[in-house]
Amino acid sequence: LAELGRNRAAIQALQELLVGVTPQPAHVPALYQYGRLLEHDGYLAGARAAYRAVARFEPHYRDVMARVLRLKETDVRRPESGPQQDGVSQVPMVVAGPAPKSEGAEHLSQDLVLPGFGADQTPVKVDDLLDTGPSLGQRVRDPTAPVPPPRPASSSPPPDHLVGTVLRDRFRLERRVGRGAQAQVYLARDQVLDREVAIKVLSESSTPDENGLGRFLREARLAARVHHGNCIAIYDFGQEKGIVFIAMEYFEGKTLRELLRKGPIDAYLALRIARDVAAALGAVHEAGIVHRDVKPTNVLVDQHANVRIADFGVARFITDDSSSGMMVGTMKYMSPEQARGKDADRRADVFSLGVVMYEMLNGKPPFGGTLDALIARVNKPPPELPAELDLPDVVRGIVRRCMQRRPEHRYASIEPLIDDINDALAVLRDRAPFGSRRQAN
After folding, report:
1. CB burial class (10 A; 0-12, 13-18, 19+) of residue 113?
2. Which residues are paired to 129 by β-bridges?
3. What DSSP state is assigned to residue 353?
4. Which one of 190, 293, 311, 349 is the catalytic residue?
């Protein structure tokens, strides 16, 4: 969210994850990022308190001491009363924890004692300490407040004013087939080559934002560098009639997320899908790019089990460290190094693919989407596939190796992973004598 320029949404997401959590050193990366987001949006008092909370546990973490000292010189006084929304003070959350005893923190020791918590600094919950900043808003309600009446259901959706638009004197938008926070996807007709294409349109609310335009163009450029049969092909990028768009291959299939709603996927098919995703990632890495968001909603599968990976919205060049310190990815699928805001290389994509494989085979992902689940991923070995699943050891070994906490213990590149998946497919073929699997390769 932060990398997409949606700082307020990122702040709120972190607030939701931190509510009710007892602070501990493993929260330091999330609190540091929370402080950076608050500082960026001008909530200096909240940012300072967040940095101070980080310094309590780890005073030498990144540049936190410098940030505390810099904001100490800034007017960050707490207002006498903050605005209210839905019964919730418009405030961010930070934590109080034990004061640090590490060398170099002495000059902050007095400053780090926050009023109202006493000298012993008894651990408190994150939401016990409040400061000036944005609110959770509609996400948390006063239980005594009246519930607003439901909105009347509309008999029919409003007409889409973009349908029928022709871009580049060529791409005619026919109907919307997908919608996200930053963009909408339309099925369109390429009137020159007489074929169906997909047109991804930057949402109108994002168009005036120069950062949003830059990210959209960056996504198109990164995706266009990858040429592989398992990656969505990019045809064009443009800005016309107030519409910013990417023209790409139209792939008629379902997302892997939709398939997983029916439960676990047959092991042979799951390995087939994983092999194709791995092949696509191999091309992505060969282009010098790390995807950073491998997950079921970004994997498309058609009725013939053909696979495409999509959405390079948070991808970056492997050599680019501009997002260092930012937690980028999707909570349930991100690698431990992504969760800690560290640089992510191709092995981060291997980890995420391992998580997707686990979910395909088990029907449920190995990790939850909470902060505690993220901390456990950093500190504990990955879970094993349930023993009751009838899977050969070679399959379990692949998933286990992909999901190792330490990047150096995973597959270093895609090629050996694909080799192992092919070996596993051979084992599964030998175990299943009926024709449909024997014919599939």
Report:
1. middle
2. 94
3. H
4. 293
Q: How far apart are the first and last CA of the chain?
A: 39
Number of Cβ within 10 Å of residue 173's Cβ equals 21
Q: How far apart are CA 71 and CA 68, in angstroms?
A: 5
**293 given a catalytic annotation:** yes
Q: Alpha-carbon distance 17 to 29, whole Å? A: 13
Burial 348-379 (b: 16+ CB within 10 A, else e): bbbbbbbbbbbbbbbeebbbeeebebbbbbee
Q: Which two tokens stand for residue 261?
A: 């709603």
Query: In tens digits, what is the pLDDT along the chain, a chain of 441 residues?
Result: 776 667 788 888 888 777 666 677 778 888 888 888 888 777 777 788 888 888 888 887 777 887 888 776 554 444 333 333 333 333 344 433 333 333 333 333 333 333 222 333 333 334 433 333 444 333 333 444 444 455 555 455 566 789 999 999 999 999 998 887 678 899 999 999 999 999 999 876 554 556 677 888 889 999 999 999 999 999 999 999 889 999 999 998 899 999 999 999 999 999 999 999 999 999 999 999 999 999 999 999 998 889 999 988 888 888 776 555 566 778 899 899 888 888 789 999 999 999 999 999 999 999 887 777 888 888 888 999 999 999 999 999 999 999 999 999 999 999 999 999 999 999 998 876 544 444 444
d(CA 66, CA 39): 13
Tokens of 144: 């005594």
SS3 category, 300? strand
Q: How far apart are CA 75 and CA 260, in angstroms?
A: 52
